[in-house]
Specification:
The protein is of the alpha+beta class. The chain has 13 helices and 10 strands. Bound molecules: flavin-adenine dinucleotide. The site of flavin-adenine dinucleotide has 21 residues, from strand 1, strand 3 and helix 12.
């Protein structure tokens, strides 16, 4: 049975995020972006809305909401600014959901619970100066010494690098396997900013998502207790990929929100601006761009909803989530380019938001799998070179909970 209805809880969540972002962030975002300022006051506000632990089970201090809710929140946040959605992707998606699925009970109590309540902020460190798409090329090592691992290496292009308290870090714990580039030699660790030998900085030359924080961190012989290893030794690569299935979902839904923002800004401007004696909205070539934005928006939304449904039902979804991320991010680039075009010279200035949309959209075509990596993945699925097998991937209680809410909603309508 196909059911496109949102539950009352999902609708309320979407509305409250939309209203909060419109009220508290939209009026200030132009200034924050121009000042390259990341506003850390957003954390307590997002925590109060339940967003920082949105899909973390309530027993660990989260809101216990399903994946569709996570997608709706991502869409609404990026409608206002990409930097807001990045917080959700990195903290609530890549990090928290990995700990939900892979963390020990002790890790859930010590790290996940404070993160879900917004008392601590968390990020994800895979990329290095010499390794992005080719994650097996990372150089960070974790050498076992007694009851600790000593981590040495550098991570770069890390969202929230200068503000997060905890990082999910990937490092080679088996040096023989490192030499052979065998990913079963990579392990995952929770590294605290407070650990000795840890330092971080902000990437100041970045030209998009300027109201967000992106940086690097270095680990010089950082001693990490063995109990901070997430998963078993050698499961780090699997965890990194699991995390990307969560992060990519939020990126897909967020980019969908960005397409909607481009569509709405373009439609409003096209009805205001006149050329050749009529509103430019009357010119068919302008209409064509707006129609393309609408079809991209609707298609992108269906793709992330489908991925979310699979996730809610505990089904493997790497293929569908990757497709949703690839389609939505490439479409958002098209929408932002056309939004600038519709605004003419005004689009080429920061007086209107579309210039910011244009700068912001590009990042998502690069992070969490570049456009090219996603193309290769999708082709390989079609060609049968790549097959996903069921794994301990998702958190099935969500489906039951959503079903219960829908039945309750239907009963109250009768
Ligand atoms: C704003 C922003 C935030 C980020 N946040 C994080 C974060 O929080 N944590 C984190 O770990 N990382 C983060 N990243 C890093 C991001 O994940 C990497 O940039 C991404 O994986 C690509 O790696 P790269 O930049 O090294 O490009 P490269 O891998 O060097 O790729 C360069 C080009 O070569 C192409 N290419 C590479 N391999 C192939 C191939 N096999 N076939 C065809 N083309 C190929 C790529 O598609 C790309 O066009 C962030 C990046 C940005 C821009």
């Amino acid at each position: 049975m196909i059911d496109f209805d949102l539950t009352e809880e999902q609708q309320l969540l979407g509305q409250s995020v939309r209203q909060w972002a419109a009220r508290e962030v939209a009026p200030r975002i132009h200034d924050l972006d121009r000042a390259h300022r990341f506003d850390t006051n957003l954390f307590p506000q997002m925590a109060a809305l339940g967003l920082l632990g949105i899909s973390v089970p309530q027993e660990y201090g989260g809101a216990g909401m399903d994946y569709i809710s996570l997608g709706l929140a991502s869409e609404e946040l990026e409608y206002v600014d990409t930097s807001l959605r990045v917080i959700l992707s990195v903290h609530a998606g890549l990090n928290c959901l990995s700990l939900v699925a892979w963390g020990t009970e002790d890790q859930k109590q010590r790290y996940l619970a404070p993160q879900a309540q917004g008392k601590k902020i968390a990020s994800y460190g895979l990329t290095e100066p010499g390794a992005g798409s080719d994650a097996r090329g990372i150089q960070t090592v974790a050498i076992k010494k007694g009851d600790r691992f000593v981590l040495t290496g550098e991570k770069t292009w890390i969202s929230l690098a200068d503000v997060a308290d905890h990082f999910l870090v990937f490092a080679w714990s088996d040096l023989d396997k490192k030499r052979q580039r065998d990913p079963s030699g990579i392990s995952a660790f929770i590294v605290e900013r407070a650990f000795k030998g840890f330092s971080s900085g902000t990437l100041k030359e970045k030209w998009g998502i300027l109201a967000g924080n992106t940086g690097f961190f270095k680990m010089e012989e950082v001693e990490v207790p063995a109990e901070n290893m997430v998963g078993a030794p050698g499961e780090g690569f699997k965890i990194a990929m699991f995390a990307l299935d969560q992060g990519r979902f939020t990126v897909a839904a967020g980019a969908t929100g960005l397409i909607r923002a481009c569509r709405d800004a373009s439609a409003a401007y096209a009805k205001e601006r006149k050329a050749f004696g009529v509103e430019i909205a009357q010119h068919q070539l302008v209409k064509e761009m707006i129609a393309q934005m609408e079809s991209d928006y609707q298609a992108a939304r269906l793709l992330w909803l489908r991925a979310g449904w699979l996730k809610n039902n505990g089904r493997r979804n790497t293929r569908e989530t990757g497709l949703a991320k690839w389609f939505a991010t490439v479409a958002s680039e098209r929408a932002a380019g056309d939004a600038v075009q519709i605004h003419g010279a005004n689009g080429y200035s920061d007086e209107y938001p579309v210039g910011r949309f244009y700068r912001n959209c590009k990042g998502a075509v690069i992070y969490e799998g570049t456009r090219e990596i996603h193309k290769l993945m999708q082709a390989d699925y079609v060609l049968g070179y790549r097959v996903d097998r069921p794994t301990r991937c998702e958190l099935p209680p969500y489906a039951e909970e959503v079903k219960r809410q829908k039945e309750e909603g239907n009963r109250s309508k009768k």
